[in-house]
């Protein structure tokens, strides 16, 4: 997952190219770059930096996630919410909206 800095840098580069390449080419490039920043982050594979990059996660919660995952991989969103203190339905929805998945699945509302 790209950091916020990398995403901002990519957006800046795309807009700089807007002036150099012309409107159509630059808009196409912008669309590609924006799509590249919107990919999923699997909770069973994410490292501490990737988890910390999620708004609302923070170092304490990401440490709890990694500690619980070290016992065994998460099976579902319900499993995450059950095993990680402070990871309730509201946080789960917030993280899912940012691209976090559990076994490839987004949280279903």
Write up what this structure looks like.
The structure is a single chain. By secondary structure, this protein is mostly helical. The protein has 6 helices and 2 strands. The chain has a two-stranded parallel ribbon. α1 runs antiparallel to α2. The chain is elongated, with a radius of gyration of 17 Å. 16% of the residues are buried.
Please specify the SSE layout and strand pairing.
Layout (H helix, E strand, L loop, with lengths): L3 H18 L1 H14 L4 E2 L5 H5 L5 H14 L5 H7 L5 H9 L2 E2 L8
Parallel strand pairs: 1-2
Helix pairs in contact: 1-2
> Which residues form runs of ≥5 with pLDDT under 50?
32-37
**Helix-strand pattern, N to C?**
HHEHHHHE
Question: How confident overall, as mean pLDDT?
Answer: 82
Question: Rounded to an integer, what's the Rg over CA atoms?
Answer: 17 Å
Q: Globular, elongated, flat, extended or rod-shaped: what is the shape? A: elongated
């Amino acid at each position: 997952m790209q950091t916020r800095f990398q995403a901002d840098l990519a957006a800046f580069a795309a807009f700089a190219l807007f002036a150099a390449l012309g409107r159509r080419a630059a808009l196409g490039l912008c669309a590609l770059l924006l799509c590249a920043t919107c990919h999923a982050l699997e909770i069973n594979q994410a490292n501490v930096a990737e988890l910390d990059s999620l708004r609302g996660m923070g170092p304490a919660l990401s440490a709890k996630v990694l500690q619980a995952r070290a016992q065994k991989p998460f099976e579902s969103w319900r499993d995450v919410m059950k095993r990680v203190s402070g990871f309730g339905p509201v946080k789960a929805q917030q993280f899912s909206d940012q691209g976090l998945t559990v076994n490839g699945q987004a949280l279903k509302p």
